[in-house]
Design goal:
The protein is α+β, with helices and mostly antiparallel strands. Helix content is about 30%, strand content about 25%. The chain is built from 18 helices and 22 strands. Strand 7 (about 185-190) and strand 8 (about 195-200) form a beta hairpin. The structure holds one RNA strand.
RNA sequence: GGGGAUGUAGCUCAAUUGGUUAGAGCACCGGCCUGUCACGCCGGAGGUUGCGGGUUCGAGCCCCGUCAUCCUCGCCA
C-alpha cells in the first residue's frame, strides 16, 4: 500500500512542491466533470485533493477523473500527490490546510464502504443509530474532540498524581460481594460452583488495605460497576480517579485534590482557580440550595419562610406549620414578567413530580404582589416577604409548604429549571465547591435501622464522636463531596482506623460483631494489624469530561456506552448464552 | 416497578377535524459541468407510517397491547 508520509491535518505552504502520501477517509467529493475535488479526512484534519487531467503532476495517473469518480464517501484511500498552493483567492480559511491542496499523482482504494446510515459530516443523527454504528459515530470530528479531551484529562490526572507521590496500583475486577451500597454485578464462579464474584462498585476496600500495607499514597484510574438504573449522567460502568492517602485528615485530602482540580480548571476551562475552594456545610447546602450538590453558577437561594407564613391568613401555611412541616421559597428575578398563568401551572405540575402538593406564586408588582393567594398576605407581610428576597418589581416569588425533604426536592429542582430558563448563569462558566460535614448516618424507615450515608467505614467528626451514643442521627462525618456546576464529581471520607469506633458504627448499622466479621472480616483484620489513619476520595472521570466538553449526557464521553436499559446496541450485550456455558457454571435461568 | 416524550423514505422532519396517489430538505443513483469546499444544473429511484390487534365506509392520525430509544421518580454506601 501507499503508506502515508503525513496526516490530513498538517500540510501548509511550508511544504509546497513536496510529494506526499495521504491516507484517510473520503469526506466529500465535488465533481466538476473535468475536475474533481476530494476531501480526505483523518483524526488530524481535512485535506483537499485535486484530480485534474492534463496537469503536469498527474502524468502518471492514467485516468484521474475516472479514478476519482469511483470514490464515494467513507471510502478508505491512499493518495500520492504534490503539495500545491491553491489558486489566489481560493484558499479555505476554515481549514488548517486551507492554503494548499494535493494534486493527485497516484491513488489506491484501500477499502470501499456502503453509504453510511447517517451522515458523518452532519450534526444530527438519531442516538439509537449512532450507538448501533458507533464506529461511524466516533469518526465524527466533534466526538473525536471529546475523546482527545478525555485522553488529555486522564493523562493530566496520571501525571499529577504521580508527581504528588502517588503510586498507581491495579486492584481486582473479580472481587467479593459486600453488603450496603449499590446492587452488585455478579459473576458466577465455575471452579467454586454456586459461588459468585462481584464486580467492584469501587476499589474502596482494596485501597484501604493498601494503606495498611504502607503504600502511603495510592491512585488508580478505576472502572467501577453498579447495577442500578441509568440516567443522563449515570452509566452502569464508569471510571473514577480513585485515591487514598495515609496519615491525613480531611483537609489534607481536599487540599491535595485541589492541586489537581486547579490544573484541570487551568487546562480545560482556561481558568486560574482561587484556592482553597469554597466549603459548604451539608446542612447549609440543603437549606440554601435544597440539595447536597449546589449549583453555584447563580444565586436565587432558597429561604425559610416559616416566620412570614405564620403571619398570613393562608390556611395551607397555618396547617403546614401546625403539623411541623416547612414553608420555604425562592424568588425568580424577572420571573413575574416572564411567566404566564399557564407557565405557572406548568411549574406547579413540575414540582408535583417531586411530591409537592402545591405551589404558591406571587408576582411582585409596583404597588403590591398579585396572584390567587395574594389576598392572604397583608401589605405588611408582603413587604416583609419582598425584603426577605430583596425582590424587585417583575420578580416572581414561589413558595412550597410541605415536609422538609419535599420542599428541598421541589425547590432545588425548580431553582435549576428557572436558572436555566431565565438565563441566570453563563453556561460556559465553572463553579467548584466542597460540600462537607455530611451526616454520618441516614435513618432507613423501611428497614428500621440506620444506613451509612457514605459507607460503613466513614470517620465521624471528632467533635461529634460523643453523639454516637446519645444522638446518632446528629453525628456528622469527615466526608466531602466535590461539586462542579451542580454535578457531584467526587466524594470521599476519612476512614475509621479505631476498632472501638468501628464497633459502635457497626452496632448502629444493625450489624452484630459476628455479622461484621463475616461480611468485612478481611478489612477488619487488616485494620487491626497496624492501620495508619487514612482517607481518600474518588473523582468521577466521565462526569468531569462531560462538564469540560460542554456535554449534557455522559454517553457522549464514553466510547461504547449503554442505553437506559443497560444495552450495548452495537454488540447486542447483554445477550443469552449457550446452555453449555450455563451448565458449566451450574447456573439455571428461571422463567 | 411508576410517570412523561418519541417512533413516518438511508437521515432530519412535515402531513388541517379520521378522507384523493403519504410530502420536503439532505443523502443515494444516472447525466451535464475545469476552481469547488453546504459546489451547481437536469433527471431518477426510494415507504410494512416500530410491531400486533381493534374501532370505522375509510386509520400515519382514534382505542388496546407490545417493542425500542430518551428524560425522570424510586434506586445509585
Amino acid at each position: 500500500m501507499l503508506k502515508r508520509t503525513c496526516t490530513c491535518g498538517e500540510l501548509t505552504r511550508d511544504r509546497l512542491g513536496d510529494e506526499v502520501i495521504l491516507n484517510g477517509w473520503v469526506d466529500g467529493r465535488r465533481d466538476h466533470g473535468g475536475l474533481i475535488f476530494i476531501d480526505l479526512r483523518d483524526r488530524y484534519g481535512l485535506t483537499q485533493v485535486v484530480f485534474e487531467p492534463g496537469s503536469p503532476d498527474a502524468a502518471d495517473l492514467a485516468d484521474p477523473l475516472a479514478a476519482a469518480h469511483s470514490l464515494r464517501n467513507e471510502f478508505v484511500v491512499a493518495v500520492k500527490g504534490v503539495v500545491n498552493a491553491r489558486l489566489p483567492g481560493k484558499e479555505n480559511p476554515k481549514l488548517k490546510t486551507g492554503a494548499i491542496e494535493v494534486r493527485a499523482v497516484e491513488f489506491e482504494i484501500l477499502n470501499a464502504s456502503p453509504t453510511p446510515p447517517f451522515e458523518i459530516q452532519g450534526a444530527e443523527a438519531n442516538e439509537e443509530l449512532r450507538l448501533k454504528y458507533r464506529y461511524l459515530d466516533l469518526r465524527r470530528p466533534a466526538l473525536q474532540a471529546v475523546f482527545e479531551l478525555r485522553h488529555r484529562l486522564t493523562q493530566l490526572m496520571r501525571n499529577t498524581m504521580s508527581e504528588l507521590g502517588f503510586w498507581e496500583v491495579e486492584t481486582p475486577i473479580l472481587g467479593r460481594s459486600t453488603p450496603e451500597g449499590a446492587r452488585d454485578f455478579l459473576v458466577p464462579s465455575r471452579v467454586k460452583s454456586g459461588d459468585f464474584y462481584a464486580l467492584p462498585q469501587s476499589p474502596q476496600l482494596y485501597k484501604q488495605v493498601l494503606m495498611v500495607a504502607g503504600f502511603d499514597r495510592y491512585f488508580q484510574i478505576a472502572r467501577c460497576f453498579r447495577d442500578e438504573d441509568l440516567r443522563a449522567n449515570r452509566q452502569p460502568e464508569f471510571t473514577q480517579l480513585d485515591v487514598e492517602m495515609s496519615f491525613v485528615e480531611h483537609e489534607d485530602v481536599m487540599s491535595t485534590m485541589e492541586i489537581l482540580v486547579a490544573r484541570l480548571a487551568k487546562e480545560f476551562a482556561g481558568e486560574t482557580l482561587a484556592l482553597p475552594l469554597p466549603r459548604i456545610d451539608y446542612h447549609d447546602s440543603m437549606e440554601r440550595y435544597g440539595n447536597d450538590r449546589p449549583d453555584l453558577r447563580f444565586g436565587m437561594e432558597i429561604r425559610d419562610l416559616a416566620d412570614v407564613a405564620a403571619k398570613t391568613d393562608f390556611k395551607v401555611f397555618q396547617a403546614a406549620l401546625a403539623e411541623g412541616k416547612r414553608v420555604r421559597g425562592l424568588c425568580a428575578p424577572g420571573g413575574g414578567t416572564r411567566y404566564s398563568r399557564k407557565d405557572l401551572d406548568g411549574l406547579t405540575e413540575f414540582i408535583a413530580g417531586f411530591g409537592a402538593k402545591g405551589l404558591v406564586w406571587l408576582k411582585v408588582e409596583a404597588d403590591a404582589c398579585t396572584g390567587p393567594t395574594a389576598k392572604f398576605f397583608s401589605p405588611e407581610v408582603q413587604a416583609e416577604l419582598r425584603s426577605k428576597f430583596d425582590a424587585n418589581v417583575g420578580d416572581l416569588i414561589l413558595i412550597v409548604a410541605d415536609e422538609s425533604h419535599v420542599t428541598s426536592q421541589s425547590l432545588s429542582n425548580l431553582r435549576l429549571r428557572l436558572g436555566l430558563e431565565l438565563s441566570l448563569y453563563d453556561p460556559k462558566a465553572f463553579r467548584y465547591c466542597w460540600v462537607v460535614r455530611f451526616p454520618l448516618l441516614a435513618w432507613d424507615a423501611e428497614e428500621k435501622r440506620f444506613a451509612a450515608e457514605h459507607h460503613p467505614f466513614t470517620m465521624p467528626l471528632p467533635e461529634d464522636l460523643h453523639l454516637l451514643d446519645t444522638a446518632p442521627s446528629k453525628v456528622r462525618a469527615q466526608a466531602y463531596d466535590l461539586v462542579v456546576n451542580g454535578e457531584e464529581c467526587g466524594g470521599g471520607t476519612i476512614r475509621i482506623h479505631d476498632p472501638a469506633i468501628q464497633s459502635k458504627v457497626f452496632a448502629l448499622l444493625g450489624l452484630t460483631p459476628e455479622q461484621a466479621e463475616e461480611k468485612f472480616g478481611f478489612l477488619l483484620s487488616a485494620l487491626k494489624n497496624g492501620a495508619p489513619p487514612h482517607g481518600g476520595i474518588a473523582l468521577g472521570l466521565d462526569r468531569l469530561v462531560m462538564l469540560y466538553a460542554g456535554l449534557t449526557n455522559i454517553r457522549d464521553c464514553i466510547a461504547f456506552p449503554k442505553t437506559a436499559r443497560g444495552a450495548d446496541l452495537m454488540t447486542g450485550a447483554p445477550n443469552t448464552v449457550d446452555p453449555k456455558q450455563l451448565r458449566e457454571l451450574r447456573v439455571r435461568v428461571v422463567e
